[in-house]
């Protein structure tokens, strides 16, 4: 049985609300340390931060992905200089929807070139806005571009967040060669365990304490009832 501590160890404890303050980020870090999470994920404007030993993740081209590749690359480079250990970049979802996976790969590769090899690059594909063929093509493009993870969602797109189906398809496509991060609308222990069972190796959570409490209380993946996946 998966324990709450085991789940916490793969959590990016996340605060990306535009109204967030430095005090909110400090509280996030303190809570993350208390909960035993892997990292905290904050907006790039909040960096640098004292993460008290936790890894630091941030976002690039967030949340729309509709930013020129060179701007995403510059944003990523600045975030690394400001202390980020991990970069979660958003692809141009419209490009993926047209099936131009060469362009998707080029976009990711531009960011990869600005992120040192010892730093982690995650690629947010906005899976709820893509069909299965587009999810597979985008995951293959991410792998070819040198990404370390593929990630389901920003948590801000109206089509929704993570789903068990998308996570399973992404995990099957990357075959363990890349990590899979599930994020967006994972609000209880059952949902978190269902994502892990489907192949997620990292979770993006904002309500981490409630999720871990659910796991500790004995939630199972079978308890998960899929919703619309909306919201972070």
Automatic annotation (TrEMBL):
Which pathway does the record list? Carbohydrate degradation; 2-deoxy-D-ribose 1-phosphate degradation; D-glyceraldehyde 3-phosphate and acetaldehyde from 2-deoxy-alpha-D-ribose 1-phosphate: step 2/2
Lyase: present as a keyword of the record? yes
Q: What class of enzyme is it?
A: lyase
Q: Pfam families recorded for this chain?
A: DeoC
Keyword field contains Cytoplasm: yes
Q: Which UniProt keywords apply?
A: Cytoplasm, Lyase, Schiff base
Q: Where in the cell is it found?
A: Cytoplasm
The record's catalysed reaction(s) read: 2-deoxy-D-ribose 5-phosphate = D-glyceraldehyde 3-phosphate + acetaldehyde
Q: Which domain of life is it from?
A: Bacteria
A GO term, aspect molecular function: deoxyribose-phosphate aldolase activity
So what EC number does this one have? 4.1.2.4
Q: Where is the active site?
A: 88 (proton donor/acceptor), 151 (schiff-base intermediate with acetaldehyde), 181 (proton donor/acceptor)
Q: What is its main location?
A: cytoplasm
Task of the protein: Catalyzes a reversible aldol reaction between acetaldehyde and D-glyceraldehyde 3-phosphate to generate 2-deoxy-D-ribose 5-phosphate.
Q: Which family does it belong to?
A: Belongs to the DeoC/FbaB aldolase family. DeoC type 1 subfamily.
Q: Give the protein's recorded name.
A: Deoxyribose-phosphate aldolase
Naturally occurring in which organism (per UniProt) = Flavimobilis rhizosphaerae
């Amino acid at each position: 049985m998966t324990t709450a501590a085991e789940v916490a160890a793969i959590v990016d404890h996340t605060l990306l609300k535009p109204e967030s303050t430095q005090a909110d980020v400090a509280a996030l870090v303190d809570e993350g340390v208390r909960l035993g999470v892997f990292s905290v994920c904050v907006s790039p404007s909040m960096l640098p931060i004292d993460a008290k030993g936790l890894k630091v993740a941030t976002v690039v081209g967030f949340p729309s992905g509709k930013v020129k590749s060179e701007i995403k690359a510059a944003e990523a480079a600045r975030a690394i200089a400001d202390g980020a250990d991990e970069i979660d970049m958003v692809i141009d979802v419209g490009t993926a929807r047209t099936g131009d996976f060469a362009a998707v790969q080029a976009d990711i590769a531009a960011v990869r070139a600005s992120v040192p090899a010892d730093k982690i690059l995650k690629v947010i594909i906005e899976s709820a806005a893509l069909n299965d063929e587009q999810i597979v093509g985008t995951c293959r493009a991410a792998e070819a571009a040198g990404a370390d993870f593929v990630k389901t969602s920003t948590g801000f797109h109206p089509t929704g967040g993570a789903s068990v189906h998308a996570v399973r398809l992404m995990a099957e496509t990357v075959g363990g060669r890349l990590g899979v991060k599930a994020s967006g609308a994972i609000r209880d222990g059952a949902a978190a365990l269902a994502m892990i069972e489907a192949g997620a190796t990292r979770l993006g959570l904002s309500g981490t304490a409630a999720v871990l409490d659910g796991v500790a209380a004995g939630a199972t993946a079978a308890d998960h009832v899929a919703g619309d996946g909306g919201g972070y």
